């Protein structure tokens, strides 16, 4: 994975830039010693590392504006960072950049149950947003796996999803407003406690823009009343095709589960060895969860079970208690950890039309043989968002490159069958150079034109999302 | 002009030397009036792909909404965001198209639960002001590949590009609908009741109040479940009024969706988007206004005396007000869309300049045109 060569001119001015940032921010908000900046050298895509020029940790919108003004005036690239849990390298620094971390922006500013929203500073973690309202019976719906650690700022940048978005949608569907600082330090407010901001849907384009358009410092988020209860059912099949048909039939029957999760045999075996959840040794396993009162759950599950039976399952397990529900989810929730016990792994995130599931799983199996690398599939079947986990050995020379090549082939296949490169993790650097498979040059040009408007100097997270060759002219022209 | 292929449309735009009025079926003449040549997508019609098991539909922009509804109904599905038919309120005729729905982000009562039209848009194809055929998004439900221009195009009223195809998420039609109804609640009490209903776990899919008339809360799903939640809801709403569950009132929601209570007669119609609890107080400052509250009070439709500057009357409030129906003179004087704060107006003007560098598409409709007749 290539990154642009750091600008020698900026590197030479490090002392001057750090001094200007220190003058603009309170003591302790600027980090420039290499021993300390190293803590920010990577995010959760740990295969790539590079310490930044400096790190700033502002504690207010005004301080974010002050820091950005300095960087704007001095022509220094800025990489915004939430909690650094990106699997796509969204917060990977370059040697000539300033990392702007929002970790100190973690207050709850307003909770309003009557109007069902919460306003928080963007460095607050996803789970602690729910934590702030659950005593009153509310929750914040998007639930990425990293929700204990990941920040709302990063959720907005990547438009994060989660296991329950089949019913509740992803971040963009639950975001009502933001306070955002533009690269030149201008503070803007978009949307708020009312639905659907006026004018063009700028909120819609900011959400998922990977920190390239502005730095979000505050967010107004929709909160929902917690459902009365939820219950999963576990269904095992001896063929991926049949499992796929079952998912399709459940959806067609008019039941809308909150989650439909899918695991294939390699993944089932790995998690069984690791977590002992008591999963059957079968080709494909589904976990379907529905919500409501006990009677409503029974009614929905009756329909789902009838459909599942029609497809001759090898296993059909209904939960009758909270303990049994937890056990059904245990394997799924420990899938990544289990795979990590076996080897290093790369987690992909392509999305496919649900109808293409059997074909894609078969082709991934063939590729696995070709590359000689094992792969396990665990994914959100209701919405077609796949997470193939490719196992490799980071200490074996060439294995990472082989793994990346394999991953790229899987993602190209996702596009080929009508899907996309990334469903919820974002492009970052990981999928950046594959964007040409998804989009024609004009399609990328119009996206880059949006960045031209928000950040004419291309200083915000400039080496991400777009293939370096496509963004090069703009990045150079802006220098 | 009514091109019947995307390529023909792109050629027309490449060759255009004067600004155009971009439309679908022409049933939603929202925005500043324009006496320009019309370019309609109504001949770009037909369903490209429909996969009920994946809940996805790909459809050409000019396809009549009725045709989409019928195809979905055959599989027991629907456009869950319940797009409004503007014809009754605006006194227009013609055939509403799916492209018009997306271009105006038309979203009905169910918006509070399932999201707006923009939340159901998975992908778009459009022609930009340089005549380039472009795409964004796709046909899968989760997609964060690059910037989300799908949302930007939804609700851009044909000012950024001409939509040629949209991909939509569709949802199952609920087996039954129950409506809790009470009469005679004043606006403030009604909005409090709607807030209480929306604060329950009972999955409310509609929360509306017609000033001086009914207050309604909708529940949808399997019949036993609707009855169960309906009974719970009667209890929750008891402090606000004597609500009764009606299992045969689905048609009332079409009246709310299309704002039939304010159709006809004279007077201007405004659409106000605010924090729900602010709504009754704001409406109370407008003597003689007739109001329909939807979205739990967050969306207020108002009929006020012709020519009134509603934004000036309301003063500084959080939210936005759109002038939906008025004489051309009033629309020109007040502007149909709420003026944006300066930094956002600059961004919007910048986006229009890049998507439509020749200023061809509905110039001046959403915001004052940078300069007329740039060509």
Give an overview in words.
The complex is a heterodimer of chains A (479) and B (375). Chain A is α+β, with helices and mostly antiparallel strands. Chain A has helices at 8-12, 14-24, 34-37, 61-74, 126-133, 152-158, 165-168, 202-206, 240-252, 265-275, 294-310, 322-333, 335-342, 357-371, 399-416, 435-438, 441-454, 468-477; strands at residues 30-31, 54-56, 78-81, 98-101, 108-112, 117-121, 138-139, 175-181, 187-191, 215-222, 224-225, 230-237, 259-264, 284-291, 315-318, 344-347, 375-380, 385-392. Chain A folds into five domains: 8-101, 2-Layer Sandwich (Uridine Diphospho-n-acetylenolpyruvylglucosamine Reductase, domain 2); 108-225, Uridine Diphospho-n-acetylenolpyruvylglucosamine Reductase, domain 3 (2-Layer Sandwich), CATH 3.30.465; 230-335, Alpha-Beta Plaits (2-Layer Sandwich); 343-416, Alpha-Beta Plaits (2-Layer Sandwich), CATH 3.30.70.2740; 439-477, no CATH class. Chain A is 38% helix and 19% strand. In chain A, the strands form four sheets. In chain A, strands 15-12-14-13-17-18-16 form a seven-stranded antiparallel sheet, with helices on both faces. In chain A, helix 10 (265-275) crosses helix 13 (335-342) and helix 14 (357-371) runs antiparallel to helix 15. Chain A is globular, with a radius of gyration of 23 Å. The model of chain A has no long low-confidence stretch (mean pLDDT 94). Chain B has three domains: 6-172, Uridine Diphospho-n-acetylenolpyruvylglucosamine Reductase, domain 3 (2-Layer Sandwich); 176-257, Alpha-Beta Plaits, CATH 3.30.70.2190; 260-334, Alpha-Beta Plaits. In chain B, 29% of the residues lie in helices and 25% in strands. Classes of the chains: A alpha+beta (479), B alpha+beta (375). Chains A and B meet through strand 9, helix 8, helix 9, helix 11 and helix 17 of A and strand 7, helix 7, strand 9, helix 8 and helix 9 of B.
């Amino acid at each position: 994975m290539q990154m642009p060569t750091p600008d020698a001119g900026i590197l030479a001015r490090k002392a001057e830039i750090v001094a200007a940032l220190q003058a603009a921010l309170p003591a302790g908000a600027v980090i420039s010693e290499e021993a300390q900046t190293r803590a920010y050298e990577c995010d959760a895509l740990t295969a790539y590392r590079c310490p930044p020029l400096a790190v700033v940790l502002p504690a207010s919108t005004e301080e974010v504006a002050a820091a950005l003004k300095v960087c704007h005036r001095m022509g220094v690239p800025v990489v915004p960072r939430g909690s650094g849990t990106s699997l796509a390298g969204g917060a990977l620094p370059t040697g000539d950049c300033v990392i702007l971390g929002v970790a100190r922006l973690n207050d709850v500013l307003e909770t309003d149950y009557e109007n069902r929203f919460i306003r928080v500073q963007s460095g607050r973690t996803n789970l602690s947003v729910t934590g702030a309202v659950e005593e009153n019976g509310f929750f914040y719906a998007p639930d990425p796996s990293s929700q204990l650690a990941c920040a709302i700022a990063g959720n907005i940048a990547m438009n994060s999803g989660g296991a329950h978005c089949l019913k509740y949608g992803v971040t963009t569907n639950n975001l009502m407003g933001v306070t955002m600082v533009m690269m030149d330090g201008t503070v803007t407010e978009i949307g708020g406690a009312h639905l659907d901001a006026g004018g063009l849907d700028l909120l819609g384009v900011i959400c998922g823009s990977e920190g390239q358009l502005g730095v979000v410092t505050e967010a107004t988020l929709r909160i929902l009343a917690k459902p009365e209860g939820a219950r999963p059912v576990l269904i095992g099949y001896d063929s991926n095709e049949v499992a796929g048909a079952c998912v399709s039939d459940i959806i067609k029957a008019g039941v809308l589960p909150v989650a439909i999760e899918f695991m294939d045999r390699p993944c089932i075996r790995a998690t069984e060895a690791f977590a002992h959840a008591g999963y059957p040794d079968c080709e494909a396993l589904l976990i379907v969860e529905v919500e409501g009162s006990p009677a409503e759950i029974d009614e929905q599950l009756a329909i789902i079970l009838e459909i599942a039976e029609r497809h001759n399952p090898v296993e059909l397990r209904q939960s009758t208690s909270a303990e049994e529900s937890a056990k059904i989810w245990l394997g799924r929730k420990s899938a990544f950890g289990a795979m990590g016990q076996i080897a290093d792994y790369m987690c992909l995130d392509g999305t496919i039309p649900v109808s293409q599931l059997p074909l894609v799983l078969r082709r991934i199996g063939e590729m696995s043989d070709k590359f000689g690398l094992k792969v396990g599939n665990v994914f959100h079947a209701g919405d077609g968002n796949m997470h193939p986990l490719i196992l490799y050995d980071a200490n074996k020379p060439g294995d990472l490159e082989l793994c990346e090549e394999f991953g790229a082939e899987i993602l190209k296949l996702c596009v080929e069958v009508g899907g996309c490169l990334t469903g919820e993790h974002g492009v970052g650097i990981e999928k950046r150079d594959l964007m040409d498979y998804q989009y024609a040059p004009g399609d990328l040009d119009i996206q880059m034109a949006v960045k031209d408007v928000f950040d004419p100097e291309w200083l915000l997270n400039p080496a991400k999302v777009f293939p370096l060759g496509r963004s090069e002219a703009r990045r150079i022209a802006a220098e | 002009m009514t091109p019947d292929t995307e390529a023909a449309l792109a050629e027309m735009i490449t060759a255009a030397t004067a600004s155009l009025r971009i439309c679908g079926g022409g049933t939603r003449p929202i925005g500043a009036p324009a006496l320009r040549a019309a370019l309609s997508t109504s001949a770009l019609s037909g369903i490209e792909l429909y996969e009920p098991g994946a809940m996805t539909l790909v459809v050409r922009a000019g396809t009549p909404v009725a045709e989409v509804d019928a195809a979905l109904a055959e599989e027991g599905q629907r456009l869950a965001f319940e797009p409004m038919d503007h014809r009754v309120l605006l006194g227009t005729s013609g055939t509403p198209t799916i492209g018009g729905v997306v271009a105006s982000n038309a979203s009905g009562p169910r918006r509070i639960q399932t999201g707006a039209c923009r939340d159901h848009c998975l992908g778009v194809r459009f022609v930009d002001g340089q005549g380039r055929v472009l795409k964004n998004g796709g046909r899968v439900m989760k997609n964060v590949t690059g910037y989300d221009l799908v949302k930007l195009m939804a609700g851009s009223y044909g000012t950024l590009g001409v939509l040629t195809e949209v991909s939509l998420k569709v949802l199952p039609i609920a087996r039954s609908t129950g409506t809790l109804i009470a009469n005679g609640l004043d606006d403030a009490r009604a909005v409090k009741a709607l807030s209480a209903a929306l604060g329950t776990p009972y999955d409310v899919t509609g929360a509306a109040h017609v000033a001086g008339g009914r207050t309604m809360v909708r529940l949808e799903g399997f019949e036993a479940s609707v009855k169960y939640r309906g009974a719970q809801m009667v209890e929750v709403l008891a402090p606000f009024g004597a609500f009764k569950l009606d299992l045969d009132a689905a048609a009332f929601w079409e009246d709310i969706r299309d704002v039939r209570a304010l159709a006809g007669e004279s007077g201007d119609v405004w659409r106000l988007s605010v924090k729900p609890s602010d709504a009754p107080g704001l409406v109370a400052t407008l003597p003689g206004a007739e109001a329909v509250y939807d979205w739990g009070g967050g969306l207020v439709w108002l009929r006020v005396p012709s020519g009134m500057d509603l934004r000036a009357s309301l003063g500084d409030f959080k939210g936005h007000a759109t002038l939906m129906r008025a004489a051309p003179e009033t629309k020109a004087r007040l502007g149909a869309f709420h003026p944006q704060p300066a930094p956002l107006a600059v961004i919007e003007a910048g986006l229009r300049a890049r998507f439509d560098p020749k200023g061809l598409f509905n110039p001046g409709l959403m915001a004052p045109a940078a300069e007329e007749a740039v060509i």
